[in-house]
# Entry
Amino acid sequence: METTRSYTWRILLIEIIAILLALLFLVPFYFVLVNSVKSFADLLMHSADWPRAFVWSNYTRVWDIIQYPKVFLNSLIVTLAANAGIALFSAMAAYRLVRRPTKLNNVIFGLFVAAMVIPFQSIMIPLVKVASFTGLFNSLIGLIVCYFGFGVSLATFLVHGFVKSIPLEIEEAAIVDGASPYGVFWRIVFPLLKPMTVTIILLNSLWIWNDFLLPSLMLSDAGLRTIPLATSSFFAQYTKQWDLALAGLVLGVTPIVIFFLIMQRHIIEGITAGSVKG
# Structure
């Protein structure tokens, strides 16, 4: 017989607190959205009020000033290419490290883990020097390579734990059926890594799309700017165009927010996925 849990005052109080906290976290979104359709004077005088007049021209002006289609394409290329490299390399590396647990592979995995704790600020200057020396400075390819290097450590660590949950008997059965080592990985193992792969792509997309520091170090050509770099142009030394900056911020975060809302369920699937039943 099923037992039903009674609805108590304690549960009601917890729900009210949760709703209030949710509303508190939504306050910054309110300020951004509301002030993005105000005039500059209205924004300064009544930043928390509802717009007295909706200035939709802020969005069209930002679209033209930052050349939104171009910077959007730059951000999209960098995000897609870096994600593809990180996902493929981390899957292959983690699989090899798990299935061939030699001393050398254990040391390599330890280096991957150690790389996760190195502060980015400590390697900024050496990074720029190396990029200049190798010809990767001021190019989207160089920026993609940097994201690839910084993101592969955590991705390999996550996939490493996930591969351990895949029964070895599945691979042995494929080998008996005549599959090559590469066939086992690409036809058997890699499809099973889909929940973790999607999780890695989602987390890295949020990071790469919104990142400002690394592109500001690696890119100096205005034609190569990503969306965060383009939006920063509204903040000069003596003038801050808040009305245009907030409209640019909305244009910049909208694609990645939509992507996150569509794919967020895969985060839970990737983290909580257990072993595969044989």
